[in-house]
Structure formats: structure tokens, C-alpha cells
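In response to the reviewer comment on reproducibility (Comment 2.3), we provide here a single inverse folding case reported in full, input and output, so that an independent group could reproduce the run without further information from us. The C-alpha cells appear first.
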């Protein structure tokens, strides 16, 4: 989706990816098959580029630091990526800078769980590598400790959760105006404190008392912003390109109320779109299908999404239920 926006601007794009079946590879000037964590490969790739950006945090920061030192523009900056790719560093940064977040500590292994002053229920997050709910565990009682992660983790108090939101440039619906303004102010303050260039998603919890607590940050295009392709004047992808290329930022005006339904690979079979499913989805007014073309084999992996954009929220919610029914029936 970022590539499509780049091609609309006429940019010459190169991609480094560890997947030989990368779905964007056929559409770029140069495709480099290498792991984004491979320092030598990332450095060699970046040396041939004017600007380097990311679509995930799990990259070689050492390579990005070398590139920056030699004058290559890297966005978001390497120091931002280094901090955000480690949930322990991220938690410490939020606490040290006075941002509201769940109380927690960084622990080195399971043995530290027995000595903590945090009471059950607790949330355990692996410091590195987690995404889309992976690497997160709820510890309700001491009996759950046997299955806890090994290695460095963040241990937090469990939040009495009311809902979860994220702030990019477009707020979520159904949230009180005062809470939205507070969330936007928090996100701006974080971005300014980081000094980030590019795109920043800030995930937040709202607890049952109405408190806003920062969960974590993502310095890249975010799942919660995919709807901006259809529902906002400037999508998150185009806005990122404008920011890192020092172009005027686009309007963030919302055109239509919207919602998104994710399509995840099931546990039992490969995720595919049948002709019947495509036909049914395309018959639904206001529904926009995005299928990523990924190869299967990983249960729970996001394979595509459908955005619903219509004039009223009631129409969006009704159509969302139609889309969900089609996806669940397959």
C-alpha cells in the first residue's frame, strides 16, 4: 500500500525483504532478497538509496546508524527505531518522560516474576519480536507462571480495560470529544519529544474510569490507519511519503465515516479468497477489498482487509456486519 502511493508520485522504489515471494517485488526497480536484520545487507542496500524508510520495526539499527553517519536520510531516525523495537526501552522512555502508561517493570526472566510487587492479574510482554498480540500473555494467577516467557520482558499491571484506541492523524469514532483531544495532545507531545520524522502510531488504552494509558508506539504505517486510503483526503501512506521527502503535508480531512474488517489466516487451512467470496464482497456497496497476495502457512497472520466507507456510522456498522458474515461463512 505504501508502494502504490510512491508509484503515484513517480518515485523510483527499491525494496529489501526476506521473503522471496514478496508481493511488491514485481513492481519495483530493484528487489533485494535479504533479512532486514542482516546488518551488511541493509547497509549495502541503503547505500544505493536517497531515502530509507521501514514498514516494520524489526530491522538492523546498526546498519541504519551507519547509513545516517554517511549522509543517507533514514526515516524514522535510527534512535527512534532502536527504542521502539524494544518494549523495555519503550516502557522506560514513557515513564522517564512522564507519559501516562500502565505501571510496570522490565524483568530479565521468569524467576523475577516471583519477586515482583505487582499483584495479579498481570500482563507479560516479550521485550522484542511481539506483534499483533503475539508475545503478550495475561497472568491471572501464580499457576500461569509455568507458561511465562523466558528472557527479557515487560511486566505490567493489568488494566481494567474499557476500550483501545490509536492515534495517527484521524481519531476513532464513538469516543468522547474530551478524551479524543487528550489522546491527540498526548500523541503530539510524544512525537515532539521523540523528534520523529515520518509517521507515528500511538496505541492507547482507556480504562473503565476514563483514564488514557499509553500501550505502545509504532513508527510506521499502522493497521489502524488502513481505512485512510478510502476515508481520508490523504492516506497514511501518502502522508508518510510527503513527510520523509520534505513535501507539503496533505489534508487530514475525513471524507466519510469508516470501519475496517481484517481477514486473518485460519488455523485449519490456507487463507484464500474464493471467487464466490470476491463476488459477494464486491456486491456490497461501500466495501473496498484489499487482498495482500501473501503466501499462506501462518495461522493468525493478516492476509487482507475490507474497508467500509459510507455517509453514516449506522450504515457503516450495518455493512460491516454484512462483510463479517461473508468472511465467516467461507
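Designed residues, in position order:
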Amino acid at each position: 500500500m505504501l508502494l502504490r502511493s510512491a508509484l503515484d508520485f513517480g518515485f523510483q522504489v527499491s525494496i529489501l525483504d526476506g521473503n522471496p515471494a514478496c508481493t511488491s517485488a514485481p513492481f519495483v526497480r530493484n528487489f533485494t532478497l535479504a533479512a532486514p536484520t542482516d546488518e551488511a545487507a541493509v547497509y549495502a542496500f541503503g547505500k544505493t538509496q536517497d531515502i530509507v524508510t521501514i514498514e516494520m520495526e524489526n530491522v538492523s539499527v546498526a546498519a541504519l546508524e551507519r547509513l545516517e553517519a554517511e549522509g543517507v536520510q533514514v526515516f524514522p531516525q535510527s534512535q527512534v527505531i532502536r527504542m521502539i523495537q524494544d518494549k523495555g526501552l519503550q516502557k522506560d522512555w514513557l515513564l522517564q518522560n512522564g507519559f501516562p502508561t500502565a505501571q510496570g517493570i522490565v524483568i530479565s526472566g521468569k524467576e523475577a516474576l516471583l519477586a515482583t510487587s505487582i499483584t495479579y492479574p498481570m500482563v507479560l510482554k516479550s521485550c522484542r519480536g511481539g506483534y499483533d498480540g503475539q508475545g503478550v500473555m495475561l497472568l491471572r494467577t501464580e499457576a500461569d507462571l509455568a507458561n511465562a516467557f523466558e528472557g527479557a520482558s515487560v511486566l505490567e499491571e493489568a488494566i481494567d480495560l474499557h476500550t483501545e484506541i490509536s492515534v495517527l492523524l484521524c481519531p476513532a469514532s464513538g469516543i468522547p470529544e474530551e478524551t479524543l483531544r487528550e489522546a491527540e495532545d498526548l500523541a503530539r507531545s510524544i512525537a515532539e519529544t521523540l523528534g520523529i520524522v515520518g509517521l507515528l502510531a500511538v496505541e492507547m488504552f482507556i480504562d473503565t474510569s476514563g483514564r488514557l494509558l499509553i500501550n505502545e508506539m509504532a513508527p510506521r504505517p499502522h493497521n489502524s490507519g488502513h481505512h485512510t486510503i478510502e476515508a481520508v483526503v490523504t492516506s497514511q501512506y501518502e502522508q508518510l511519503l510527503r513527510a520523509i521527502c520534505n513535501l507539503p503535508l496533505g489534508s487530514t480531512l475525513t471524507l466519510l465515516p469508516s470501519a475496517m474488517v481484517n481477514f486473518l489466516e485460519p488455523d485449519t487451512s490456507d487463507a484464500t479468497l474464493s471467487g464466490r467470496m470476491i463476488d459477494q464482497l464486491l456486491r456490497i456497496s461501500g466495501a473496498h477489498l484489499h487482498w495482500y497476495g501473501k503466501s499462506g502457512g501462518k495461522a493468525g497472520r493478516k492476509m487482507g482487509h475490507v474497508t467500509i466507507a459510507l455517509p453514516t456510522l449506522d450504515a457503516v456498522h450495518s455493512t460491516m456486519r454484512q462483510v463479517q458474515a461473508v468472511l465467516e461463512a467461507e
